[in-house]
Amino acid sequence: MNRATRITVATLGAIFGISGMNHGFFETLQGNTPTNGMFIPAIGEAQRMWPHGSEYAFTLIPNFLRTGLAAMLIGLTIVVWSIGFVHKKNGPAVLLILFVLLLLAGGGVAQVLFFPWVCLVSTQINAPLTWWRKHLPPKVQGPLSKMWIWCLVIISALLVFALVIGVTGFIPGVNDPDAVLMTLGLCLLVVMAGLPLTFISGFAHDIVMNPSGEN
Description:
single chain, flat, mainly alpha, 2 strands, 7 helices
């Protein structure tokens, strides 16, 4: 098993699962009321903490309470599956299905930018990484391997930071909502740019730890 790849998928999957639960929680606070459409603000006006803090989501369930409960249940399942079962047979396929269900049940729309890549990388947890062994020169495998844990920590911290900003709009010393929104967008851009390096450095770490490629 490729341990670094598994830890990367488990960490990111859990964060996105928690994000879905967060959307669901605020949707339930809007009560047993109709959504009046499929594109909804997960955070209603009564709970909104800053002007841009609507946390929009898509749902096929035309009721805030029910879609919120569904999002929290699916999000929790993603957390559990990412940590404990994604490395099992059909684990990546189930993870992809769960993320699609979360998208359709009010778990947030921004995650669609990230979860396909997490699911794709999860297919390499038990793979021999033959392509990467061939195309990553031995002289770069070591340096990349040492970068992996730092890349994962930074990306994870930025994702959690973005989640907190999206809900609360709070950044120490920043009071302008537009500046807060720009900072949130910048965090997500850095995450998008940093994910490939995180994944590839994880592959390099697994190659260095298991030079023969035997599981």
